[in-house]
Amino acid sequence: KRIVVLISGSGSNLQAIIDAIESGRIHGQIVQVISNKADAYGLVRAANAGIPTCHIDHKAYASREEFDEEMRRRIDSQQADLVVLAGFMRILSSAFVEHYSGRMLNIHPSLLPKYKGLHTHQRALAAGDCEHGCTVHFVTEELDGGPLLVQAIVPIIDKDDELSLQKRVHAREHIAYPLAIEWICADRVRFEANDIYLNDELL
Ligand code: GRF
User: Fold this and answer.
1) Among this protein's residues, is 121 annotated catalytic?
2) Per the annotation, does 23 bind a ligand?
């Protein structure tokens, strides 16, 4: 499958996907990496792997819809089968989300439906939770609200602070995301009319 990855920052999840493709754990190819930030380190990672990159500055567009429309044009010109959000820090318009329905994944650093939005590690600590984690999900209209595909759980330990917890979750993200992407690439999972099918069976 042809994959386009959208990033805004460091791109460690992008790196995990690149590594999984190179080692044959994902049967797909990243045809383009798009960043809304010119200085995103993920662009360097992509270039190092020989993947075409593209910077689309959201500030250069009058509205969210226009920015999204430009991204849609670029993604579709690559004939992408799958759009992967990997630390892409922009909210997407409903037209964009609708266009890629069933073809767009996100990874979120919490055990959804807990802690949608930002500062998830801090919030899990403040709540006194004993576990935390990450979730790969299909993207739908509701922010961090689409159907869940893979979750990885980590324990929260006494001496954890935001950084140590974030690091432990991040390490799991790098396992969970390639796994979910391979399920899609191998046609084991599909999302249709708000339902997830695994190996052709409704979940
Ligand atoms: C990750 O924590 C991911 O869950 C969130 O943004 C972060 C991206 O990290 N959506 P990286 O750029 O992949 O290192």
Assistant:
1) no
2) no
Q: Where residue 196 falls among pLDDT bands split at 50, 70, 90? A: confident
Q: Which residue ranges form the domains of the chain, and what is each CATH number?
A: 2-107+135-150+176-202 (3.40.50.170)
Q: Is 13 annotated as a binding residue?
A: yes
Q: Residue 103: which of 66, 52, 140 has the closest Cα?
A: 140
The rounded distance, in Å, linking the Cα atoms of 153 and 85 is: 20
108 lines ligand 1 (CB under 6 A): yes
- The span from the CA of 4 to the CA of 31, in Å, is 6
Complex confidence, ipTM? 0.96
Task: Please give the pLDDT value at position 114.
Answer: 98
Sheet containing 189-192, strands listed edge to edge, beginning at the edge strand earlier in sequence = 189-192, 195-198, 201-202
Helix/strand/coil for 82? strand
Banded pLDDT at 195 (limits 50, 70, 90): confident
